[in-house]
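Pilot study result, target chain (240 residues):
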Amino acid sequence: MEHTMDLLLRAKNGDKKAGELLVQENLGLVGSVVKRFENRGYERDDLFQIGAIGLMKAIEKFDFSYEVRFSTYAVPLVTGEIRRFLRDDGMMKVSRSIKESGWRIKRSREKLEQKLGRSVTLQELADDTGLSEEEIALAIDASEEVTSIYQTVYQSDGSELYLVDKMADDAPEEEQLLNRVTVQQLLEMLDPKEQRLIRLRYFDGKTQNAVADVMGMTQVQVSRMEKKVLHKMRLMYEKK
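Predicted structure:
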């Protein structure tokens, strides 16, 4: 780690050779990120080149005050660069089977919510469509992209759950790390009051009523502010 920090410091001070060496030593990181985006209609080498641009941006933007490993900081930037390329190119591929599952889930949700008069649980969607809960989370995420991970669903005991929470349970360790770093970066872009609300709700697991007591607000005010902040975070995520 000291070696990497030394290269970063030298690169930021204009040492081109240090920057080139830093890129070379972290190309394996780019490769591991690229694997997540294979089979989407693009050559691996093309995605690798885009990821390398993200790596160079990470070197340029790295702030030593973050007190994190360079690789931890770089992964979201590499990932973001590839995602931005796929989104801007307008050709992010989703398999036909996943698209079909997405339509089945959408129809099922509309039918069940109209019948039950409430949001449906993952288990209810699974029972009605014949898909597993993991397949449902994947299909919704693929068809609705970023906003889908904040779709509110409910567990069998009636407790509130976001799809991102469900998917995180089964995500590889590397992806869980990526999610945590990304969320941390988004939190740093919020004002102190917004940060406090999100931390109380999603890190401390407090109910809206409990957050209202802590922050001197009403439950309705907390609910409105929470929706506003989550929407703000989604927009910031899409621009990363």
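One observation from the pilot: DSSP finds 13 helices and two strands in the chain. A full batch analysis is planned for the follow-on phase.
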